[in-house]
Write the structure tokens for this entry.
Amino acid sequence: MTSTLVPPAPTEADRRPVPAPVGGGAATRPTPFRRLVHGPAEDPAWARPALLALLAGTAVLYLWGLGASGWANSFYSAAAQAGATSWKAMFFGSSDAASFITVDKIPGSIWIMSLSVRMFGLNAWSILVPQALEGVATVGVLYAAVRRWSGPAAGLLAGAAMALTPVAALMFRFNNPDALLVLLLTLSAYALVRALESAHTRWVVLAFSLVGFGFLTKMLQAFLVVPAFGLVYLLAAPTPLRRRIGQLTAGAAAMLVSGGWWVAIVELWPKSSRPYIGGSQNNSVLDLLFGYNGLGRLSGSETGSIGGGNTAAGRWGPTGIGRLFNSSWGGQASWLIPAALLFLVAGVASRGRARRTDRTRAALLLWGGWLLVTAAVFSFSQGIIHEYYAVALAPAIGAIVGIGVTTWWRRRHEMAARALLSVVLVATAAWSARLLGRTPTWFPALRGTVFVLGLVGATALLMAHRLPRPARAGLAALALG
């Protein structure tokens, strides 16, 4: 008797068919327009139309009636007007064209708005449209990052979840720096996905350079993703450990350069010929970074703050693990956090015996690390903090939910997978009903409807493997709705 070694079944991420040559000859390269309309050859026919519909819907959601916000945050609108008038004011992020004082942020987002005002004139649309387009771009980049390993369905779910997150629908229609920050961090995550595929140094450098540019937008908050990105690459990149360490060192250097050049210029510039650094106590960017607008926001000890949170209900509300779910933060981005956490734990646990470079585990650790570190900092920061900061959680939540739903739906023939999907659906429906109950005068019947549909969908999920294909499609639509 002879034994045969059976190789392990390929994962979904490994099933990437090579397009067949046309006419038996060499494969023809599709034109950019054809690739835009039809997408990659390995994708199903519905994938690219669905993506285009998602992006168009997001654009409508973020652009419709945008002018109703007027000047939005007039603090940043004034800086955009000044930057459109004076290149010096634009470079420093000054609040006035005479460059007397800057805004209390590094002016990455001001540069984008100032250029828009220079091109299209000063009006609400020229100030707000850049943020809306950044939101559409974020959805597209998130789709691309998730699709590479988990397929187009997961990418679409991730993008839709992010686009419809309440705080995202607000902040991508506003002119705070958060919109550009989220786009840059999502681009960084995409670059890291590419780096984890090929172990090419250029992708590692690009990923951390984008984090550096995020620092130029909202300073130290951009670095919250760095622990997860660094650890995931160190764990899962398909290259020897020594090379991984060397690549991460190069990435750290690139991040320092891309984020530090502006700080170095401003610090070396004679103070007599540049504006005062707004928010600092001694006309120094470094004081701004490590004081009022930096580390001081964690401890609540920043000079210039108007009251910290501590553990009691202070000026910025109580701190603790429940902050993201309380009455002021809960409605921002928490509706899918229970689902994301359940999928994260179950997904990582199920890949416990997978090889070191397993892509599903790497993806969950990448997005899960982003979510957990950022959520922890927001939950326990005792200084100045605003609820709209939660927009930084939206890409990670969307990615984990998209990956989780599609991964476990493919395994619906297993009782454990169906049970997990049912629990996730019930938890999401229950928490959504709770959030709706906090505004009882807004569509009061919706609260009960959401909960009942969640129970019906969860019950049907337990029998999903026995349902005919049309019924399964209807069940999936019900669960997603």
Notes: Confidence is low (pLDDT under 50) at residues 1-10, 17-26, 306-313. The two ends are 55 Å apart (CA to CA). DSSP finds 21 helices and no strands in the chain. The CA atoms of residues 353 and 361 lie 10 Å apart.
